[in-house]
Amino acid sequence: MSQPFSQPTVLVIKLTLIGLVILLFAAIMIARWRMAPEHTPLQAIEQPIRFSHKHHVGDDGIDCRYCHVSVEKSSFAGLPSSQICLTCHSQLFRDSPELAPLHESARTGMPIRWNRVHDLPDFVYFDHSIHVNKGVACIECHGRVDQMPLTWRTASLEMQWCLQCHRSAPQHVRPLSQVYLMTNQKPLSDEEIRQLDRLYHLQDTRRLTDCSTCHR
Prior knowledge:
- By secondary structure, the protein is mostly helical.
- The chain has 2 domains: 7-35; 53-79 and 114-214, no CATH class.
- Helix content is 44%, strand content 0%.
């Protein structure tokens, strides 16, 4: 029995099918990448309490360090304990149903299970303290949280994003007195950049972009 298609035709059909499968797989992966939370712009992260940075930081002017108590001395910024929240909310809005999880946490001693806005992989080493003590402002990574009714990601914090900053580190630092300000930094002059570089003893670009800096 003769074959319905010649060998060249069969080869073309096979290559076409393989190409279609590859294109379909690539389309699915791109769609998943674009829909991943870290790539979804302005998508607020759901929380057990609808905490508003806009109200607490923008309206009330609460300093980042009041809630994130370990940001200057630890790799972790830290999340506020229920007792920190209750320094205000034992009096303010104490009967609000929205704050029921807070009062339940205080009653039982079980911490509130906040959902991470940024969750770096375990193989990435990141230290908040070294960044803020070298003049890297909160808004560099977290954006204008003082304008966020609910908190969302403004930066992917993926490797290439971090490397872009590390390659031009002196351009991303400011005086320590301005690290916690929710204002965009005006462009620095070359002399200001050199002064901050000398002041903070910043590592050179080669060291800052070395694999071992973030992968230990």
